[in-house]
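Following up on my earlier thread - several people asked me to post the actual chain instead of describing it. Fair enough. Here it is, all 107 residues.
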Amino acid sequence: MKRVEIEVNGRAYLLACEPGQEDRLRELAAYVDRRLKELTGGGRSAAEAPMLVMTCLVLADELQDLLAGRAVAPSALLRPSEEAEMVEAVDGITRRIEEVAARLERA
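Reply from S.P.:
Thanks for posting it. Predicted structure:
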């Protein structure tokens, strides 16, 4: 497994990925970061965990719309031909965000 540092909402995260997927993971992180800023305005605060969760929920909703064949805003599109890879990436990011949110709640 390769280790890749990504940044979302101004925070760095070190994640594992398959060799050769480093650029894809960075691309996905940049997309999530952009959508988070579009949806919530971004910014680090006590409300960061809810902002991350809201962003994940919006992304999951957009993904479900894509999978169901419903129209999605053009800004939400991200290589629909790579559906399985997107689902796996979103699931991984969701797990990571849940871990971060849990740590923030304990702090």
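Residues 83-106 form the longest helix (24 residues). That should answer part of your original question.
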